[in-house]
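SAMPLE LOG
Freezer: B-3
Tube label: C17
Construct: single chain, 301 aa
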Amino acid sequence: MVQQIAVSDAAVLQDVASGGTAHEIAPDLAYRRLAIVNVIFYGLPGAGNRGWVLIDAGLYGTKGFIKSVAAERFGAGARPAAIVMTHGHFDHVGALEELAEEWDVPVYAHPLERPYLQGEASYPPGDPSVGGGTMAAVARLYPRGPVDLGHRLHDLPANGEVPFMPGWRWIHTPGHSVGHVSFWRESDRALIVGDAFVTTAQESAISAALQSAEMHGPPMYFTIEWDKARDSVGRLAALQPELVITGHGRAMHGEEMREALQRLADSFDRVAVPADGTYLRHPARVEDGTAYVRHNRPVPQ
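STRUCTURE (predicted):
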């Protein structure tokens, strides 16, 4: 049975003033919530043209909001050096094609996300039977078709470095998607996790709207390999981060956050995994082709 791991306000990182449009949580890290999802900005304020990096690209229709934050934080007309992706679900790629073309920037992602980012395949459909709540109930209606970045798409370097983000390394954290990655900086123990885990109950429209703070497994309705999701959370908890930014929910820090993350890892099957569901019975694996849904490929039933 899925249970809540409550986190007090003491673990929620207090936002540092940054003009009112983005939450600055470290000198070179800020994020902006766009409806149900966070977009992250790496770079010092005033970094200027090509002096910063965008991490994920929000929902469709949010290009203007992203550009507004970028202009305020980095300077009018400042374009990023790159866009790096945790994964390619619809709420992380909504403005990606438009921004990549307008800014003329490379986009970096794990090689296993390529089919979804170069127009070859759609994600497996969302599973409305898991998690309860309105967000989960309409999961099969969410867009899952690919975007096509063409020549701008590049694989993240095999050596683990993150382009234009010195000191950061990427970690393959599959489960929510086959090519999902997280980003880790050892120097201050900062961790950007996408949807490997989140800090609100994303299946519930009310929790998503209110940003109710809790340590939560990956959004259930899109998670396709629960065994790998468990392993990924365990790997991230073992890093003992000081600061975490997730794709959904508020940034957290400190000992209470670490303890909650460890509890999530230790009791993942009990507190994060639904009792039943399409992808519990039939995980969508790269090996059998179900992770890459093309016109001639079946989806799990």
